[in-house]
Amino acid sequence: MSSIHHVTAIAGNSLKNFNFYTHDLGLRFVKRTVNFDDPSTYHFYYGDETGQPGTILTFFPWEGAPAGQRGVGETHQTAFRVPLNSLGYWAQRFVEKGIAHAAIEKRFGQQVLPFTDPDGMALALVGVAGAENESAWSNGDIPAEYAIRGFHGVTLLIEDAAKTGAILTDVFNLREVAREGSVIRFQAEGHAIGGIVDIREANGFLRGRQGRGSVHHIAFRAADDAEQIEMARKLVSTHHLHPTEQKDRNYFRSIYFREPGGVLFEIATDDPGFAVDEPVATLGQTLKLPGFLEPHRKEIEKVLPDLGETVP
Description:
Elements: E1 4-11, H1 14-24, E2 28-35, E3 38-47, E4 56-61, E5 74-83, H2 87-97, E6 105-107, E7 110-116, E8 122-128, E9 151-158, H3 161-170, E10 175-180, E11 183-187, E12 196-201, E13 215-222, H4 225-237, E14 247-248, E15 253-258, E16 264-269, H5 297-303
């Protein structure tokens, strides 16, 4: 049974991105590295104390990147789970911080607080009864009882939900649990964190365009290489999709494919995790590079934006 491993998005200014997610939302800065395919660009990872799968939101900050346009074939919204009684706290915090947000609404019987980050990325907090009993990372500003508990799920904007839904159910073993208007909810049994994918059918809408504020891809969990191989086999044999070869991302091993609705999906292994190259106590404090880029550290550090003194 799979669920969300991480979500990767595109940002603009790297320091604004860091300040928003660590200071305003209170996530931990789990890893500071670079885009392995474009080492002149940072790759930031935010999550809980250890960066466990289901809590990780990552960014490629591309200074000067044009704004993305939401539309069909894109991730429409990324939602975090918080304790139900914390939504009032968060609404007040958003007012105090000047964070753009909408009124609390109800979806599938749950209270939802939509908001956006500085680049216009569509986000939401979902109040979940019992989430206060889950572990939480506190930045010392946001009380632990109100802190984010990882992902609730994502909403995809898809023209025709059937083929995408087949991937979710057959390859990732999610199951359809509810419908509300044009939205179909798929859920992973037994996975509270990152266990929900909503598909909003949007026949006739304009196609989305990726840019600043867009989700680049969504990664789903595989326990290990064997489970990843089995998922890839189903993609090829049943759905006639051909994922990439496995890529070593240091903290997980990944394959990629574009699902029938147009969204880029990744399947990432749970191991080895983010403590493979630095202790948990000091995650995110220094720039980490993969072995093949380490000989070029000086040149890479020269072209990366200065994050100033606010980053530990």
